[in-house]
TrEMBL record:
Calcium in keyword set: no
Keywords on record: Membrane, Transmembrane, Transmembrane helix
Phylogenetic placement of the source organism: Bacteria, Pseudomonadati, Bacteroidota, Cytophagia, Cytophagales
Record-annotated membrane-spanning stretches: 92-111, 117-138, 145-166, 186-208, 220-240, 252-274, 286-305, 317-340, 352-370, 390-413
Organism: Fibrella forsythiae
Keyword match Chaperone: no
Protein name from the UniProt record: DUF4153 domain-containing protein
Length: 414
C-alpha cells in the first residue's frame, strides 16, 4: 500500500478509497511515509486525522466522574427514604418517582452547560413547587386527578430537563432535537445497564442460594432499589462522556424496528376488525390504543432525530411516512372513541386528559407527516422534519403542567 499512497498523495478521493479498504495498514504505511511528505498540506491533514486522540479520557473528566458518583449516591439515598423514614412505599413512590432522578439530571446539565444563576434559581423553584404540590396539596386526597398528576409531573420534569439540556436559554431556542437524540441514546444505554444488572442479580442470588443464604429480600431492598435509581444518571454520564459508543446504535435500532412497527400496526388494525372489540365501548382497549400510539410516535421521532441529510435513504423515509400515516389513522380512531365516550357518559378528568393528549398528538403527527411527505418528494429538506418534531415539545410541556397542576383544581381533586 506504500506505493499506492505515494502515487495518490495528491488525489483525495483515491486516498479515501485506500483508507477505507484497510484502515490499519493504511495508517501504519502512511505514518512510516510521513517524514518525507511533511511539506504536503494534504499529507499533513491526513497525519492529524489518523493520529488524533481525544484529550479527555474514556471515563470523562475527573469532575464529571465525581458528579456522577455523587448524584448516584444521592439518588440511591432518596430511593431508600421510605425504608429509612418508615414511609408508605406506595404513597412515596407514586408521588415522588420523578423527583428521585430528574432534579439530579437537571443539575448535571445545568452544571455542564453553565446556566445562569437566575435560570438555576427558577429551575429549583419550579421543582420545589412541583414536589410541594404533589406531596402536600394532594395530602389525604385520592381520585383520578391525583393519578393524572402523578403521571404528568414526571413528564413536566422531563420537559424541564430538556430546557436545561438545551442550555437553559429562551433566546436562540432550545435544542429540542438534540434532546430527543439524547433520549434515544439514553434508552439504549439504560437497557444495556438493566440487562447487565439483571444478569448480575440473578447470578449473585443463585450463588448465595447454593450456599444456603437466601438474600433475595435484602438484595432487592438494598442493591436493586439503589441501582435502579442510579441507572439513568450513569447512563447519562456514558452518553455524554463517550457519545461515539452509542450515537450509532439508536438509529440502527430505529431503522430496524420502523418497518416491523409498520407491518405490526397494519396487521393489528386489521385484526381489530375481526376481534369483536372496539375502543368506543371497551375502556381497556382504548388504553391499549393510546399506549400503542405513544410507542409508535416515539419510534418515528427517534428515527428522524438521529437522521442526517445523508443518512436516510428514500425507502427509509417512505417507511416513516407510511408509519406516520397509519399512526394518524390509529390516533383518529382513539380520538373519536374519546369523543364518543364523552358524549355518552360526560366529561371526567381522565377523558379530558386523554382528549387533550390525542388532539395534540394528532396535530403533531399531521405536521410531521406533511414534512415527511415533502422530504420523500424532495420538495423540502429533511431538517424540516426534525424542526416539526421539536416544535411541539414545549406544547407538550405546557399541557403536562395543565393536567398536573390545574386539573386537580378544576375538577375539585376528584
Amino acid at each position: 500500500m506504500r506505493n499506492d499512497i505515494l502515487s495518490n498523495i495528491n488525489n483525495p478521493r483515491q486516498l479515501e478509497t485506500l483508507y477505507w479498504t484497510n484502515k490499519s495498514t493504511f495508517k501504519a504505511d502512511f505514518n512510516s511515509l510521513y517524514p518525507q511528505l511533511q511539506d504536503n498540506p494534504l499529507a499533513e491533514g491526513w497525519y492529524q486525522r489518523l493520529n488524533y486522540t481525544p484529550e479527555e479520557s474514556f471515563w470523562g473528566t475527573p469532575s464529571e466522574r465525581l458528579f456522577m458518583i455523587g448524584a448516584s449516591l444521592v439518588a440511591a439515598l432518596m430511593a431508600q427514604l421510605p425504608r429509612l423514614l418508615s414511609l408508605d412505599k406506595d404513597y412515596f413512590y407514586t408521588r415522588n418517582i420523578g423527583f428521585i432522578v430528574f432534579p439530579l439530571l437537571i443539575a448535571y446539565f445545568a452544571w455542564k452547560n453553565k446556566i445562569s444563576r437566575t435560570t438555576g434559581a427558577w429551575l429549583v423553584g419550579l421543582t420545589l413547587l412541583a414536589a410541594g404540590f404533589i406531596n402536600f396539596i394532594h395530602t389525604g386526597k385520592s381520585g383520578d386527578t391525583l393519578i393524572l398528576s402523578c403521571i404528568h409531573l414526571p413528564l413536566w420534569l422531563w420537559s424541564l430537563l430538556g430546557f436545561t439540556f438545551g442550555g437553559g436559554k429562551f433566546k436562540g431556542g432550545v435544542n429540542w432535537l438534540g434532546f430527543l437524540r439524547y433520549n434515544g441514546e439514553l434508552a439504549v444505554v439504560t437497557a444495556l445497564l438493566l440487562i447487565s444488572g439483571g444478569l448480575t442479580t440473578a447470578l449473585t442470588i443463585n450463588l448465595f442460594g447454593l450456599s444456603g443464604w437466601h438474600i433475595e429480600q435484602f438484595y432487592f431492598d438494598n442493591v436493586v432499589v439503589c441501582g435502579l435509581a442510579a441507572v439513568p444518571i450513569v447512563a447519562t454520564f456514558l452518553t455524554q462522556a463517550q457519545p461515539a459508543l452509542v450515537n450509532k446504535v439508536a438509529p440502527v435500532i430505529a431503522n430496524l424496528f420502523s418497518p416491523v412497527a409498520l407491518v405490526m400496526l397494519v396487521v393489528y388494525l386489521g385484526a381489530t376488525l375481526f376481534s369483536g372489540k372496539n375502543p368506543f365501548n371497551d375502556r381497556e382497549f382504548l388504553l391499549i390504543y393510546n399506549a400503542l400510539l405513544v410507542g409508535v410516535m416515539a419510534l418515528i421521532f427517534f428515527s428522524v432525530a438521529e437522521a442526517t441529510p445523508t443518512s436516510k435513504k428514500p425507502a427509509q423515509l417512505l417507511v416513516l411516512l407510511l408509519l406516520s400515516a397509519v399512526t394518524v389513522l390509529v390516533n383518529g380512531i382513539a380520538l373519536s372513541a374519546v369523543l364518543f365516550r364523552i358524549s355518552e357518559w360526560g366529561l371526567t378528568p381522565n377523558r379530558a386528559a386523554v382528549l387533550g393528549a390525542n388532539v395534540l398528538m394528532l396535530l403533531h403527527l399531521l405536521y410531521v407527516g406533511i414534512r415527511l411527505f415533502g422530504a420523500v418528494t424532495r420538495k423540502s429538506e429533511l431538517s424540516l422534519v426534525g424542526q416539526s418534531m421539536a416544535f411541539f415539545l414545549p406544547i407538550y410541556s405546557v399541557w403536562s403542567a395543565v393536567v398536573a397542576f390545574l386539573f386537580p383544581l378544576l375538577f375539585g381533586f376528584k
